[in-house]
Each structure stands twice: as structure tokens, then as C-alpha cells.
Amino acid sequence: MESTLGPRIGKAQGYLRIATEEAWAPPELIKLFRRELAEKTIDDPGFHSLWGFFAGTSERGQLLVDRIQDLGERRLADMDAAGIDKALVSVTCPGVQLFDAATGTALASSFNDQLADAVSRHPTRLAGLAAIAPQDPKRAVQELERAVGKLGLKGAIVNSHTHGEYLDDPKFWDIFAAAEALGVPIYLHPMTPSKAMIEPFLARGLDGAVFGFAIETGLHALRLVVAGVFDRFPRLQIVLGHLGEGLPFWLTRLDFMHNIIVRTNRYGAAAPKLAKPMSAYLRENFHYTTSGMGWTPAIMFVHQVIGIDRLLYAMDYPYQYVPEEVIEQDNLPLSAADKRQFFQTNAERLFAL
Ligand code: 1DF
Ligand code: MN
Asked: Could you tell me the CA-to-CA distances from 154 to 20, 146, 179, 180, 298 in Å, in that order?
């Protein structure tokens, strides 16, 4: 099938193209990132390794900084040029999770107000996910409820670890309870590996989106599964980008090995017996987007082992603004019905667009 990108061309294709992992940085966040890069008061080696481009003057850095702040004409023009009808926007990683609890909580509500305001100016082109600060779980729940109930945002984004902590710790579970009750998903977006495991990645420049992101975030997702989060919250939906950070490739091995672990009770309460095999949760409680992975064989593998109902399009603007990848995904060897689910209706259903 041919593809012609351009404004609103999705309609001519028989589907709208909805991109679901699209980054935004409020100018205030860029200012705070730059201050932290200079002053180094926060002990997060991954942040200091990767985020230099926000302070530097490289061509890629400049382009990213220009594009990522915009929620108006610049972004819409780039969407038009790549044939993207609607972008589900979220604050870029690590977002408000970099800061202390009070700062992160205050920033989250300010950013959510700003995002909702931009959506109200371009309601057909933009939708948004809420920023929340897990550093203060109680306030995070309140902000999620406000952002969804009052501002019309469509769920929340969490950028993997928060100061080295993972959401499988029960102190965070009220956030899952709230998301489940509201019927909104949580997008588990990558972050550089936490301090406890980043060193061997840093030593060879593998900590960022090249690989470290996937290890950190895939681990986080599996920690949720084996902790029993989805036995407790069976309707909770987690969204993973980058085609699930590699996890769909692991389904049968996870089941085989995890079964041995729980049968022999090797880790006691840390790895409890679950109601279902690990793969069942990865099929029933997760959705998978193609952010940064516009590659036909990998997408078709996830289509085969997970299924069309949980596969969604994402670009990862502005980090991977590659219009050719939209053409590749227009030309996936899928039926017209599956392609419409992939680009449009799965996102509309999952995020209540
Ligand atoms: C990069 C990629 C940076 C993604 C990101 O946030 C990011 C990158 C700072 O290429 O450096 O979210 N990503 O999702 O792939
Ligand atoms: Mn991203």
C-alpha cells in the first residue's frame, strides 16, 4: 500500500493516526533540568549522563529543546508533516520524579493545568496524560483524580524508578487503586537505570534510550507482575512503549522459570505464588506501543504473540521524529481492520479519546 503523509491524511487512509508517547517539556522544567545539570544536587547518575542535551548547544539538542517545549503551531506543523492526526502528550522523563516530594507534587499540578489548557486550544489534535509525583503517593492519587476528573487528562505517566524506588512497593499501590477505579491506564515510560544498577551501562554508554531504558523499564514492569499487583488490581492497565521493552520476546521463558521459582519457594514473600502465569498478566494487563520501534518484523512479532487488541502506534516525538517510520507502519502487512485498530481505535478505547 502506498502512503502519503500530510495534514489530516489519516482520513484518506481509512483511519486516523494517533501517536501515544509524545513528549513535552514545559519551559520551567527545562530551566530546572538545566539548573540541576549545573549544580548537581540530586544523586541520579542516569539523569546527569543523558540530559546534557538540554543544556548543550549541539544541533540535536537545540532541535529537541525547540520542539519539545511547543504545544502549538510548531508541534502541529510537525504532526502534519508526518501525517499524525492526534498526539497523546506527556511530560518528558524523568519529569517531576527528579525532584523532592513537595517540588514534584507542585510541579505536577502546574504542568497538568498547562497541558489541559493546550488540549482545550487544540481538542482535535492533542490529548494528554497527567504527570504525578510518586514521591508523595497520597498527593499523587489526589492529582491523578483531579487531572482525570477535572482536567480531562487520560491517565498518568510514570517514568520508571523514582529516586531508585519501584512501584511494586506497596506504599505506591494507592496509585494503582485510583487508576483502576478511574478506569485509566498508567504509561510506564522509560528512564535511565537507577543508581543501584547503572554503573556497567555508563561504562560503555549504554544507559540511555539505546538499551538502558529498556532494561530499567522492562525490569520495573516485571517487578509489578511478580509482586502480585495485578492479582490485587485485575482491571489495571499498564502501557509500555518500545514494543514492551523486549518483554513479549520472553513470554515462554518467564513462565517456565517463574514456575520453578515459586514452586521451590526460593524467595519467599518476595516472589509469591501468583494466580496466573506471568505471561497471562503481560497479555491481560499491558498494552504495547511502537514508540521508537518502527520496524516491521518486531511489530509483527508482538502482533502475533500479544494480539492486535493491545498494539498501538506511537512516535516518541521529538526524540524519534522520523516520518519514514510512519510510512513503514502504514505499510505493515495487516488487514485494513487491524491497521485501524493499531493506529486509531485501540488508542480511542484505552485512553477514552
Ligand atoms: C530519548 C528517548 C530521550 C526517549 C527521552 O527522554 C525519551 C533519547 C529524555 O533519545 O535520548 O523519552 N524515549 O522515550 O525513547
Ligand atoms: Mn519516550
From this structure: 11, 11, 10, 13, 27
